Amino acid sequence: MSILAHNGSAVIAMSGKDCAAIACDLRFGVNLQTISTDFTKVYPLGPRLYVGFPGLATDNQTV
């Protein structure tokens, strides 16, 4: 099985007048099979800056 088949799932963000939110599910899987339910996809880059990485787990780990 190719490492390119290991996928995360959803990341969503919203912003308001004085607020912002970013959320994700914690699923990590291959096709329809769930491998883990504690896979982090949102990371802080600074005190007020966060980034979310849906999609390939290898891209997530590289960055």
TrEMBL record:
Record's keyword annotation contains Cytoplasm: yes
GO CC annotations, alphabetized: cytoplasm; nucleus; proteasome core complex
GO biological process: proteolysis involved in protein catabolic process
Main location class: nucleus
Coiled-coil region: none
Keyword Transmembrane helix: no
Keywords: Cytoplasm, Proteasome
Subcellular location: Nucleus
Pfam families linked to this entry: Proteasome (PF00227)
InterPro entries per record: Ntn_hydrolases_N, Proteasome_bsu_CS, Proteasome_sua/b, Proteasome_suB-type
Protein name, UniProt field: 20S proteasome subunit beta 3
